[in-house]
Design brief:
The complex is a heterodimer of chains A (145) and B (744). Chain A is mostly helical. Helices cover 55% and strands 0% of the residues of chain A. In chain A, α4 crosses α5. The longest helix of chain A is centred in the first third of the chain and has 28 residues. The two termini of chain B are 32 Å apart. Chain B has three helices and 48 strands. Chain B is 3% helix and 30% strand. The radius of gyration of chain B is 25 Å and the shape is globular. The chains are: A mainly alpha (145), B mainly beta (744). Chains A and B meet through α2, α3, α4 and α5 of A and β4, β36 and β47 of B.
Chain lengths: 145, 744
């Protein structure tokens, strides 16, 4: 095969790969989930301390792990959960923690639910958190709108 | 180190030694307190800290002067005592005691008492009572606020009330339970309340779930313990759980030879059962553990105050429960009176099942220490539906009001007021006016028509929400804030909750809630009192939240803060057509109160000198000075509404944890105060002016009120920090040579 022909033959393939890669990357970005390592171990450790100090007296882990967590939050965005805990918690003085403390607790909740840690920390930024979907197990589910 | 334990599975109670004796440590802690040979003042030896609040008057005052404005900033960590070595905790909410050369504290969710060498931070002894299911299902499973101490000179005792509601008297020198006290040093506090004790069993291996879900139950005949599934009956005896649950979170107070003990209860939000245990105060002989008297905090038929429960107050009846006095207490040993701050009745936000004023809920009660007879009482909130438990030991002071010497008791509260009362009679020092308040629109609720509003001193926390409270930097900002404020029911104070579905007469779906359930003052903060000047220093917060109620489909209550108990052990079956909601519509069961409204990140509430640390002169009732808790928080917004507006900073959040000395007011920011990340600080201000005189970096935020003492010529400040598996006591002192003035 002449080189020109080879280029002609391969180009659509390269193009399709490039297009696919771009699209897939966009899709991946769009569908970033809590199974992709969205918090760090260090952040979850900080969150554990905040949780023990501010949350544990009213909660048992069973109320926000496993099936209970899945039923309440699977498919929702992290920003929704962040918004919930940062405006409704602690029960006696909602909104009384700093945003950094709330997002650390969020990381700890993910860890409690066996979601993997990664390198980066979750920021207390609802735009960033809004792009992360809570997924409680590997089987993908359609997002809840 | 000696470590004594009560065997969990034993029939009856047995003591076993599971530690070893470090003879060198146990031989004796060097008795070099500041107090040798000096008379007690308010029950405390000068330079020591024998009560949770320093002395019987709960002043949190120390006359020590070695640490002062000139050297506060040079304080160093002398030692750090790892409380987690005895197990995890919630947040470490303990204030240790110092007496006769030893430091005493509690640690872990088992509330183990321990003694520490104040100079080195080494453990001298440690003791644990294994309580079986009584611990597993304890409503207050944490280290608690501390201990009580008693001594007649040669004998010293440390008194602990455990999470499972036992009272133990421990030899302060050795850590060994006093064999003459109760049964081998322990009194079962579930006994003597008028209930028969029964064997307990559990159907799950977890703890109680807020509030009364997953409870224990009476064991079936012949029921055994399943060690694999960790369910069944383990031999634990207790009050029949169908009556309700009882707990403890604060130390007893010892007055003379009487130990005064009360109780706490389940959390008052989201209960399932419409009845629960009532609160009671009891006196016990310090030598024998014999119960001397009992005072019912829900007056029983025929007792004074029973008529304030118009549907009846009999224990076990529908609508009856709580009125638990869960805060520490104060006493005047000379008058022979103990002052009991009492919490609210069952449940927090709705009282349709308990019409009436509900004595002695949300009151201060003065009892004769020898007899338990009520001398007087003062109710701060009639028919409480705001979770305004009286949260803190009151402060006793001798002051001069209008030229007349007065013995007063000052009670700071969640609702943001200081109530100043004559401590012999309960009469207000300044007029407290019964004032008409907003009435509830919630079906079945019968709000009390008036509430007592102090004319003096002025409030230290935001009261309700009215138009003049709103930010008004520009007309547009004022309009926006008012529009937002009008979404919930407004008023000057005591605004009743609204129906979440908006079916009340006014159509509101929420009410503004300020102070919220955490105060104002709450157990984290509270008040120090200066017996030299008659001033008090109040650590409080000032915020704004909302409150609403609706039906929990699986609870007996007609209304509560929005919540779904369905599926929990002990909950009612889900009604027909029940559909669980998800996401923020349901969350994990916590809704109904929400953070204060803001626009573009800016609170609609004007920043005011509220919360933080407020100093009052109780001779005049006037505010003297105010400082924020730590530092004020800068406020910025990208919202165009605030373009060109310089936004004032917000006062610091959280509740300052305060003590006072000869010259200083010293405080930590508390677990929810200060910055979220290090560095953290302990602060000192001039107690006369509030002027900042120093701050010192500390390893972690204070999580309880600090204390101070003199040991071997050195003044120490000790405070609790941390939560979970990272709890510790931190001791600060001046570097060697930094105390050259050797003042005391």
């Amino acid at each position: 095969m002449k080189p020109q022909l080879l280029v002609r033959a391969v180009s659509p393939l390269i193009l399709s790969v490039v297009v696919c890669a771009t699209a897939c990357a966009q899709k991946a970005r769009k569908e970033r989930t809590t199974l992709t390592g969205v918090y760090s171990e260090q952040q979850a450790a900080r969150g554990q301390d905040v949780y023990a100090g501010m949350c544990k007296s009213c909660h048992t882990a069973a109320t926000h792990t496993g099936a209970a967590f899945e039923k309440s939050w699977d498919g929702h965005s992290l920003s929704e959960l962040f918004g919930f805990i940062s405006t409704r918690m602690p029960k006696n003085e909602p909104g009384s923690l700093a945003p950094e403390e709330y997002v650390d607790v969020l990381a700890y909740l993910l860890k409690l639910n066996q979601m993997p840690a990664g390198a980066a920390e979750l920021p207390p930024d609802t735009v960033v958190l809004g792009a992360i979907r809570i997924e409680t197990h590997a089987a993908a589910k359609p997002p809840i709108r | 180190m000696r470590h004594l334990s009560w065997n969990r599975r034993a029939i009856g109670i047995a003591v076993c030694v599971i530690g070893t004796i470090a003879a060198g440590m146990l031989a004796r802690a060097r008795l070099s307190s500041a107090a040798e040979g000096q008379p007690l003042v308010r029950g405390n030896a000068p330079g020591e800290w024998r009560f949770w609040g320093a002395d019987a008057w709960s002043t949190r005052y120390s006359p020590l002067t070695q640490i002062d404005a000139s050297n506060f900033g040079s304080l160093q960590v002398a030692w750090q005592w790892n409380a987690s070595q005895f197990g995890e905790d919630e947040y470490y909410r303990t204030t240790p005691l110092y007496a006769n050369g030893r430091l005493f504290t509690v640690a872990s969710t088992h509330r183990d008492p321990a003694a520490i060498d104040p100079a080195t931070g080494k453990t001298l002894w440690h003791w644990r009572l294994e309580e079986g299911l009584r611990w597993q299902k304890a409503p207050r499973q944490f280290a608690g606020r501390g201990l009580a101490y008693w001594s007649d000179g040669p004998n010293e005792r440390v008194i602990v009330v455990t999470p499972g509601y036992h009272l133990a008297s421990i030899d302060a020198k050795t850590g060994v339970p006093d064999p003459k006290f109760g049964k081998n040093g322990v009194v079962d506090l579930m006994d003597g309340l008028g209930f028969t004790l029964v064997p307990w069993a559990v159907d799950d291996s977890g703890s109680l779930i807020i509030s009364d879900a997953a409870p224990p139950r009476k064991a079936r005949p012949g029921e055994k313990w399943d060690p694999v599934r960790k369910i069944g009956a383990d031999g634990t005896m207790g009050i029949d759980p169908s009556v309700g649950q009882i707990a403890n979170s604060s130390p007893a107070i010892v007055v003379g030879n009487v130990i005064v003990v009360g109780n706490s209860a389940i959390h008052g939000y989201f209960p399932i059962r419409k009845h629960n245990m009532p609160g009671a105060i009891r006196g016990f002989d310090v030598h024998t553990g014999r119960q001397l008297w009992k005072f019912n905090l829900i007056p029983q038929p025929g007792e004074f105050g029973a008529e304030t429960w118009t549907k009846g107050s009999k224990v076990g009846a529908e609508g009856v429960g709580k009125n638990d006095a869960w805060a520490p207490y104060s006493a005047d040993p000379e008058l022979g009176l103990v002052y009991i701050p009492v919490g609210m009745p069952l449940m927090d936000e709705y009282g349709g099942h308990r019409p009436g004023a509900n004595l002695f809920g949300t009151s201060l009660v003065a009892l004769d220490v020898k007899t338990g007879q009520r001398r007087w009482h003062y109710q701060f909130v009639h028919h409480d539906i705001w979770d305004y438990d009286t949260p803190m030991a009151p402060n006793l002071l001798d002051v001069t009001v209008d030229g007349r010497p007065r013995k007063i008791v000052a009670q700071t509260t969640k609702q943001g007021w200081v109530y100043a009362l004559d401590r012999l009679t309960g009469e207000p020092i300044w007029p407290i006016v019964e004032t008409p308040v907003l009435q509830s629109e919630v079906p079945g609720e019968q709000t009390w028509p008036t509430q007592p509003i102090p004319s003096k001193p002025a409030a230290y926390s935001q009261q309700g929400l009215v138009e003049s409270d709103l930010i008004d930097y520009t007309p547009a900002i004022k309009d926006s804030a008012l529009k937002l404020a009008k979404r919930c029911r407004m008023g000057p104070y005591f605004i009743p909750a609204s129906l979440a579905d908006g079916t009340g007469a006014s159509g509101y779906r929420c009410s503004w809630y300020a102070p919220g359930a955490s105060g104002g003052v709450n157990i984290d903060g509270g008040t120090a009192a200066d017996p030299e000047t008659g001033r008090i220093y109040v650590g409080s917060q000032s915020g704004l939240s909302t409150i609403q109620v609706q039906k929990d489909p699986c609870s007996e209550f007609r209304y509560s803060s929005p919540h779904d108990s369905c599926g929990l052990i002990g909950a009612l079956p889900a009604p027909a057509g029940y559909v669980a909601q998800s996401g923020s519509a349901r969350g994990n069961g916590f809704e109904g109160r929400a953070a204060g409204a803001s626009i573009g990140g800016v609170s609609i509430l004007k920043p005011k000198p509220l919360g933080g640390v407020t100093a009052y002169d109780m001779n005049s009732g006037d505010k003297i000075w105010w400082v924020p808790n730590g530092v004020s928080t800068p406020v910025a917004s990208n919202d165009p509404l605030f373009a060109g507006v310089t936004l004032p900073p917000q006062p610091g959040r959280g509740q300052a944890q305060i003590i006072t000395t000869k010259t200083l007011v010293i405080y930590g920011t508390g677990r929810s105060g200060g910055p979220p990340r290090p560095p953290f600080h302990l602060y000192a201000v001039d107690k006369a002016t509030g002027k900042d005189v120093g701050q010192v970096q500390i390893p972690a935020k204070t999580t309880a009120v600090p204390m101070t003492f003199m040991h071997q010529g050195r003044q120490y400040i000790v405070f609790a920090t941390g939560a979970g598996a990272n709890t510790s006591l931190v001791a600060l002192t001046l570097p060697r040579g930094g105390d050259s003035s050797a003042k005391q």
